[in-house]
UniProtKB/TrEMBL annotation:
InterPro entries: Aminotrans_V_dom, PyrdxlP-dep_Trfase, PyrdxlP-dep_Trfase_major, PyrdxlP-dep_Trfase_small. It comes from Thetidibacter halocola. Keywords: Aminotransferase, Pyridoxal phosphate, Transferase. Transmembrane segments: none annotated. The keyword Transferase applies. Residues 27-254, 302-406 form the Aminotransferase class V domain. This is Aminotransferase class V-fold PLP-dependent enzyme. Pfam families: Aminotran_5.
């Protein structure tokens, strides 16, 4: 875990760590719904919102804005460990998943299938459902493992065919909290269909560990910055050179390979540089390496270790406080002993409405979230025979004291 001194430094870099501007003091365990925002992101957003100039003009301010965008794209490439390809900003992570999936489906060779899994968020699953049909292909779904809350490379391997044209993979589930073995899944796909376009949903994963698109071998990777310490209002994606080479929406006579339509928000790009700069700083506290990517790797490893300690305490207890696994009637999605867990615990209590638990915790100053068996979470909850569950999601700025507050509140539920 982080030392108390370092954790204090970390928490000081974020807005609203200990209190909500509407309700006052609280513990924030709703990070999967949107992480806390870096103070630097707040400042950067305000600064760029006031600038009247736009990129693409022949004046010094415009050229300076373009330099900010170029720098941010380079920062994102290092964050993703991507060489080549395109970095693009869109309306949201969901919108970008739709765009990448659409262009892959319409640009791939005719025939074949579109492959995905039952573990996926409706963003990628809905995009494939639509564009598989529009391109005249079946959308084949690989079943996830209810017991572990993951989808395995072996499960993908059982369904991939030589004519698989497009495949999607969710890196981490926002319902189970489990990370999938992205490189192994992609390898299983490419072993049979080497030319398949593979697009990864990294929205839940981005704040909890390392992103490495080079090692994964994907053609597209999408994140939502508001879930990785930035703000709402935009999404970020990386698209490989071969995905970028496909036809996509663009202005007639415009630059070749350009993904973006209209003038982009320079402040959105600039806030991604803030995120990467923060992770660079954090990695520098854990390593004395002079190479930025190595510092980002060190930050990712430290984040995973800190969050693992917190979720273990949440599950198995700490001091004289019982963990969730020791509370009668608690059922943890994906099982308590699961190495794939990334900063999230979803559970229910037999015979007790999850909505009641969330409301009671909120009254105790513990912010969690109710997941219902709807279009967002039904793919996980329906097979378990559950109508809902409680999701407790944390990030590396959360503390053991906050976990203790949660466990004490759970003990008072009686």
């Amino acid at each position: 875990m982080f030392s108390d001194a370092l954790l204090t430094e970390i928490r000081n870099r974020f807005a609203h760590v200990e209190s909500c501007p509407f309700t006052g003091q609280r513990v924030f365990f709703e990070n999967a719904g949107g992480a806390l925002t870096l103070n630097s992101v707040v400042e950067t957003s305000a600064r760029f919102a006031a600038i009247p100039d736009n990129q693409g003009r022949d004046n010094p301010a415009s050229k300076a804005l373009q330099q900010v965008i170029d720098r941010a794209r380079d920062d994102v490439r290092r964050f993703f460990n991507a060489s080549g390809g395109s970095v693009l900003v869109g309306e949201s992570g969901t919108e970008l998943l739709f765009r990448l999936v659409r262009d892959a489906c319409l640009g791939a060779a005719e025939g074949g299938i579109v492959l995905g899994s039952t573990m996926e968020h409706p963003a990628s699953r809905s995009a494939c459902h639509r564009w598989a049909a529009e391109s005249g292909r079946p959308h084949v779904l690989v079943a996830h493992d209810d017991a572990t809350g993951t989808v395995t490379p072996e499960a993908y391997a059982a369904h991939v065919t030589p004519d698989t044209r497009v495949a999607t993979v969710v890196h981490t589930s926002p319902v189970t909290g489990m990370g999938n073995d992205l490189p192994a899944i992609v390898a299983a796909i490419r072993a049979v269909a080497p030319d398949c376009f593979v697009i990864a949903d990294g929205i839940q994963h981005a704040s909890h560990g390392l992103i490495d698109v080079a090692a994964a071998g994907v053609d597209g990777y999408v994140i939502s910055p508001y879930k990785v310490f930035s703000r709402h209002g935009y999404g970020v994606a990386w698209a490989s050179d071969r995905l970028t080479a496909l036809a996509h929406d663009s202005l007639v006579g415009g630059p070749a390979g350009n993904w973006e339509l209209g003038t982009r928000d320079t402040g959105a790009y600039a806030t991604m540089s803030d995120v990467v700069g923060y992770l660079d700083w954090l990695g520098g506290q854990m390593s004395d390496t002079a190479e930025q990517r190595a510092r980002l790797v060190a930050a990712g490893a430290a984040i995973k270790a800190h969050e693992r300690a917190l979720t273990d305490a949440m599950l198995f207890g700490t001091g004289n406080l019982k963990g969730l696994t020791e509370i009668e009637g608690v059922r943890v999605i994906g099982g308590a002993e699961n190495a794939a867990r990334e900063g999230l615990v979803s559970f229910w209590i037999e015979g007790r409405p999850s909505a009641e638990i969330v409301t009671t915790l909120n009254e105790e100053g513990i912010r969690t979230h109710l997941r219902k068996a709807d279009h967002y979470s039904g793919n996980v909850l329906h097979p378990l025979g559950q109508d809902d569950c409680v999701r407790v999601s944390l990030c590396h700025y959360n503390s053991m004291d906050e976990v203790r507050a949660f466990l004490a509140a759970m003990a008072r539920l009686g």
